[in-house]
Design a protein that fits this description.
about 450 residues, mainly alpha, 3-stranded mixed beta sheet, about 5% strand, cell membrane, Magnesium transporter MgtE
Amino acid sequence: MKQERYDTQYEEQFQEHIEKVKTALQQGQIEVFREEFLDIHPYDQAMFFNQQDEEARGQIYTYLSPEEMSEILINIDLEDVTAFFEEMDPRYAAMIFAEMPADDAVDILNELDKEKVASYLTIMDQESANEIKQLLHYEEKTAGSIMTTEYVSIYNDMTVAETMRLLKTEAPDAETIYYLFVLDGNKRLVGVLSIRDLIIADDETKIEELMSTKVVAVSVAKDQEDVAQMFRDYDFLALPVVDFQDHLLGIITVDDILDVMEEEASEDYSMLAAMSNTDIKDDNAFRSARKRLPWLVILLFLGMLTASLIGRFEDTLNQVAVLAVFIPLIAGMAGNSGTQALAVAVRGMATGDYDSSVKWKLVGREAITGLITGTVCGSILVLIIYLWQGNLYLGFLVGFSIMASLVVATLAGTLIPMFMNRLNIDPAVASGPFITTINDLISILIYFGMATTFMSYLV
């Protein structure tokens, strides 16, 4: 109860603060606005800025320096922030990019037209432009594309005192100083040193005596999803990025990996629904429809296959019309079971829980799971259909069809994403609607195949 009162009180104080910021902005009180606005957290600044109309944002551009503005924009989603650069004076925008951490600047620039990127880089100061150009060359979704070059590196022959002097000079511009990366005379990464170990050491101690030589690093070309997996496994705050000769190129920090995890999760969820990832935030109905139509047309043709398959068993349906009653039930159960297995398999591969050593164990587990769930559901149906229709053979037919369909559907939901992963295709593209449609075909084939075989027991 005390916590709730505290939260309510804090929220009221925060809202009062925001109202002062709004009033100062509306009345053009620059100094009051700056004092109140810069007193709140950069994330809250970003949320306030994102809610303003174009005229109000234009005022804010004139009230804040490029450095202050850069802190706001790196806290706004890429889909939104790119539009704001269209409103700005190009020189002001270029100065904002120069003030941003290089990796954040590159993320935004990758969303802009190449002509505009070239224009900004031309206006920008040479040092910042060269740093950003270096990162722009790396392929998207790799370690190189998400790393930053703003880190502190030291040499193994330096002393603690020399390192502390260097740290005081370079720390203000570094993204993190929790780890210091140690290079040899050829600028190869040979060790890592924590700031804690540095502080407690004697001034004359050599860095090579303090550093840990067990350095975990990633190749500049490594996929960002694999890098995120390493952060999760090792609980890193920062990870060095090297070339094929172990030269240190940059570091990846945990805040960037959190963004990667969110991006990958969103992408996988979109694929599971057979949608484009960009479709989620698209506010244009025609663009949204254009992105969804290809998937829906493919599923339409797959659905026609299901309809034509039912048509091939028209004689069976004419003789025992009640069979039609159970088509949606069997197809729906198979689709649900396949989608559940698909979700388990895709998540397991995405998190690295299911590597090559355990994947067949997973297949066996899912097959047994399908058999157990199919047997239970089938047995329940046998009893219900016998009490409802008074036909034990019909009950056994539907019950066995459910059991067989659930086993096959569960295996399909597990094996198809594994097969795609083997072909280096994102397993999430084995999306729910596709698995559901495929399992519709399989379950109906099982159901009517058995019904045709044992027709003499049903009529």
